[in-house]
């Protein structure tokens, strides 16, 4: 069976009340309370989005995220009472798409989940700019229709959000794009934080740049935003 959302959280009352609220407003939601139950869920079911707690009774949400990223690119939103910036950076660096701190407002969380489901439910509608189906240079190939990235002929695995961000930068090649524009056009959420964007930019650089610390493609324009510098001959 397919669900819009799967909640993986060992706080049973909170997880159950969140799922009940989501289902009430038309977001079909299942709940599991451990990493083991999550694995069992995926043997017979699927979900379009995951809400994943860091602290699980039988393991770490971080470890489970890395395991899940081997077989799915669906958005993973971490939910946790932990407030450390290091936790947030790790969560995003290992493949999480966002980090939501507990306690959360059910209404705000539902709104965010609906935005993400809407965003990733429209694979054909990558955000604006040039309409070419591919970007190709001597090192990097990005096929927008196939949602595939090759670096020196080797396939590079990106999350859905990372691919969407890279696509937007490339489709607006050589134009300086403000952080606010990226929040609104890629995340479709003007309240996304700088820290979240910075981590995703860093992950993209690690994926496609020769030297991530000295990027050739994704250039920081201090005080303004970012620019994709095309390397086509």
TrEMBL record:
In this entry, the residue ranges of the DNA-binding region are 131-230
Q: Which residues carry this modification: 4-aspartylphosphate?
A: 53
Identify the InterPro entries for this entry: CheY-like_superfamily (IPR011006), OmpR/PhoB-type_DNA-bd (IPR001867), Sig_transdc_resp-reg_receiver (IPR001789), WalR-like (IPR039420), WH-like_DNA-bd_sf (IPR036388)
Domain Response regulatory, by residue range, is 4-117
Q: Which Gene3D superfamilies match?
A: 3.40.50.2300, 6.10.250.690, Winged helix-like DNA-binding domain superfamily/Winged helix DNA-binding domain (1.10.10.10)
PROSITE patterns tied to this protein: OMPR_PHOB, RESPONSE_REGULATORY
Q: Which GO terms describe its biological process?
A: regulation of DNA-templated transcription
All copies of domain OmpR/PhoB-type, residue ranges: 131-230
In its keyword annotation, does this UniProt entry include Phosphoprotein?
yes
* Gene Ontology CC annotations of this record: cytosol; protein-DNA complex
Q: What does this protein do?
A: May play the central regulatory role in sporulation. It may be an element of the effector pathway responsible for the activation of sporulation genes in response to nutritional stress. Spo0A may act in concert with spo0H (a sigma factor) to control the expression of some genes that are critical to the sporulation process.
- The name under which this protein is listed is Stage 0 sporulation protein A homolog
The species is: Acetatifactor muris
Q: Which gene encodes it?
A: regX3_3
């Amino acid at each position: 069976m397919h669900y819009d959302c799967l909640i993986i959280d060992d706080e049973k009352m909170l997880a159950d009340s969140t799922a009940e609220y989501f289902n009430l407003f038309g977001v079909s939601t299942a709940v599991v309370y451990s990493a083991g139950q999550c694995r069992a869920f995926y043997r017979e079911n699927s979900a379009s989005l995951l809400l994943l707690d860091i602290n699980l009774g039988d393991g770490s949400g971080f470890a489970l995220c890395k395991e899940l990223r081997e077989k799915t690119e669906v958005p993973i939103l971490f939910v946790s009472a932990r407030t450390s910036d290091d936790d947030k950076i790790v969560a995003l660096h290992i493949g999480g798409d966002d980090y939501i701190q507990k306690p959360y407002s059910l209404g705000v969380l539902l709104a965010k989940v609906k935005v993400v489901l809407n965003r990733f439910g429209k694979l054909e509608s990558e955000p604006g700019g040039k309409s070419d189906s591919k970007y190709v240079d001597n090192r990097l190939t990005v096929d927008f229709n196939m949602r595939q990235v090759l670096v020196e002929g080797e396939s590079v695995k990106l999350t859905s959000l990372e691919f969407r961000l890279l696509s937007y930068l490339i489709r607006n090649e050589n134009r300086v794009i403000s952080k606010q524009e990226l929040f609104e056009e890629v995340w479709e959420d003007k309240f996304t934080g700088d820290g979240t964007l910075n981590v995703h930019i860093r992950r993209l650089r690690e994926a496609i740049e020769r030297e991530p610390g000295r990027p050739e493609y994704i250039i920081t324009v201090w005080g303004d935003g970012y620019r994709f510098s095309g390397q086509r001959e």
